[in-house]
Design a protein that fits this description.
This protein is 7% helix and 41% strand. It has helices at residues 32-39, 166-169, and strands at residues 2-5, 12-15, 18-21, 24-27, 47-54, 58-64, 71-77, 79-86, 97-103, 109-112, 116-122, 126-133, 142-144. The strands form three sheets. It has a six-stranded antiparallel β-sheet, covered by helices on one side. InterPro entries: RmlC-like (IPR000888), RmlC-like_jellyroll (IPR014710), RmlC_Cupin_sf (IPR011051).
């Protein structure tokens, strides 16, 4: 496993070691001891989520203002452009974003600690997306920041308008959003 730091403190790209031959491949998608050794992070995951979406679906930018979730995310089918946005008001990178392609082919994962909003857009015909979270889903604390807020300026790889949920269409601007201290 290789851990790559990003410009946002705490957000990490995880590249697993893949063993492949003419039969297929094998890789360890998560190992708590190794993850802690390489990243310094020791998360306890309590929930796994799985979504499947068509090309052009954009989910996010989501977070929970209480019961904040750290997320380890990866794609098992297709490809997405995955984004983390720093919502920690005291952070020198507050309001900044990091994006990366996650795909079944590259097998990369992204660690997004609590204090960040998270979202992705599907860039393949379809994508299956897995999330490991450090806290349970709490709809009463769920919040969203608008995917195209110009104050954040995410450069989404889109061919036209994305498909959004009703709640993502009316998400808050960063200036109006509840954020972390």
């Amino acid at each position: 496993m290789n851990v790559i730091t990003t410009p946002l403190e705490g957000v990490l790209v995880i590249e697993p070691r893949v063993f492949g031959d003419d039969r297929g491949y094998f890789f360890e998608s998560y190992n708590a001891r190794r993850f802690k050794e390489l990243s310094g992070v020791d998360p306890v995951f309590v929930q796994d989520n799985h979504s499947r979406s068509a090309k052009g679906v954009l989910r996010g930018l989501h977070y929970q203002i209480q019961q904040a979730q750290g997320k380890l995310v990866r794609v098992t089918e297709g490809a997405v452009f995955d984004v983390a946005v720093d919502l920690r008001k005291s952070s020198p990178t507050f309001g900044q974003w990091f994006g990366i392609e996650l795909s079944a082919e590259n097998k990369r994962q992204l660690w997004i600690p609590a204090g960040f909003a998270h979202g992705f857009v599907v860039t393949s015909d379809v994508a299956s997306f897995l999330y490991k979270t450090t806290d349970y889903w709490a709809p009463e604390f769920e919040r969203a920041v608008l995917w195209n807020d110009p104050a954040i300026g995410i450069e989404w790889p889109l061919d036209g308008e994305p498909q959004l949920s009703g709640k993502d269409q009316v998400a808050a601007l960063l200036a109006d959003a509840e954020v972390f201290a």
